[in-house]
Every structure is written in C-alpha cells, then in structure tokens.
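PROTEIN–LIGAND DATA SHEET

This sheet pairs a single protein chain with one bound small molecule, zinc ion, given as SMILES. Inputs appear in the order they were entered. The predicted three-dimensional arrangement of chain and ligand is reported afterwards as a token string under its own label.
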Amino acid sequence: MNIMEQILDAEFGCRKCGKTVLSKQYKFSRFCPDCGTLLHSLKFWIFQFNPTVYRWYDWIKKNRESEQWLTSQHAKEIRKGDRVVIWASGEKAGIYALGEVLENPSKRALSPKQQKYWIKREDIHKFEEKKSVIIKYLKLMIDKPILEDVCRKDHILKTMEILKQPQGTNFLLTKEQWKRILKLTR
Ligand SMILES: [Zn+2]
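PREDICTION REPORTED AS:
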C-alpha cells in the first residue's frame, strides 16, 4: 500500500496534530502515535457543485492542490481531518475527486483567485454569510469519474443521501459508502 492509499484508508484521526491512522493501528492503540492524544473517528462527506454555477473543471485544471468550499449544511459537524468526496451535479453527474478538510469551518471571504470561476456572481457573497473550509485534494478523477448511474446501480452507493435528496452542498456519507468509493477508484 502506498502512502496516499494509507492516507485514504485512514479511519481515525488526531484533533491535535492532524495525524490519521488505519483501523488496525487504532485497534493496537487508541492514542495518537505522534502526540499521545486520544484519537477520534473521521467523518465522511459529499460536497456538491453545480457546473452551471461554478466552473469547477476549469478551476481544478489550474489549481489541483486545494479549494475553498462552503459548509452551508453540517458546519457544526464537519471537522479538520474529515474526508470529502466531490460530486458534480448535471449531465455528467458523479464523483470527481477525494480530499481532506484542512481546518474547522469558519467565516472567511472567498479567495480572489477562486472568485472568477463563479458564473453566478451573487453566490460569492454566500462566503461572507456562511462558514467555509479549505479542502486539500488527495485524489483527482477528472478523467475517470464514478458516474451517477454507476452509483445508482451499486448495492452500497445507491443509498447515498445525495441520490435521494440532491438539494444542498454538504451531505453526510457513511464509512461503508466511503470505503466502497475508494474500492471503485482502485
Ligand atoms: Zn497527534
């Protein structure tokens, strides 16, 4: 298993230093191997963009490392270290990237660099009203997305909240759904 796969497979994290560990390490010790803090279960999320509102594909081609995302829903539960699946709505709906939350949600203006990718300019102000996070990308699947119809046919992914009630930006994902997505990307 390479380092990136180990990071993606981690199920527990340290709130103090940000270290993440695999479940077999957690079974061995419930404390952070680096700083001794009690580890917690990571949470998993889907963040959705609408390509007619935000030019995500153009952004990601030039800025592959990280991106600011609104936390319009679940801002109290989304925490540093949590894992995020990026979902596009529209004609080619599906999963396009996997990432990690770099810090807890807070109110901050949208970075000027990112502003020009918003087609609906009035949405930029949402960043002043609502909390947002920075996502660091761990895996991009722009050329090989997991499309919506594959998810709908999958016995685990068909239960994803986003497929039942697709309104919103932030959706909870179960650990089982996250692990299934990882499996389909390998
Ligand atoms: Zn630690």
